[in-house]
Design brief:
mainly alpha
Length: 105
């Protein structure tokens, strides 16, 4: 009878060790799956962030090009205005200079 009790105790201990071992394996598998899922999420977030960053950069570059074109257009317009004003005053300036030179001769 004591032998039966001892045998049952050994079987229970063996069964407990098996359960404990299975639980450790299952915990390791869950942990590995969680790490893998976390790595996939990080990779996806990184990819998304890079795409968003590229979109923002492209939008800002486009905006900068538009602003540069507007500045160039305004500069060309202003230069044309100044050229017209200078051409309109050219005859008076020449006349002034000639009068000044002729008067002092």
């Amino acid at each position: 009878m004591i032998q039966d009790v001892l045998e049952r105790i050994r079987q229970a201990e063996t069964q407990a060790e098996t359960i404990k071992s299975d639980a450790r394996k299952q915990a390791d598998e869950i942990l590995a799956a969680a790490r893998q899922a976390a790595a996939a999420l990080i990779e996806e977030a990184t990819r998304t962030a890079r795409q968003e960053g590229a979109k923002l950069i492209a939008a800002e570059e486009s905006k900068a090009l538009q602003e540069a074109e507007e500045i160039r257009r305004r500069g060309a317009h202003k230069a044309a205005q100044l050229r017209q004003e200078a051409e309109a005053r050219l005859s008076s300036a020449v006349e002034f200079v000639l009068k000044h030179v002729v008067t002092h001769l």
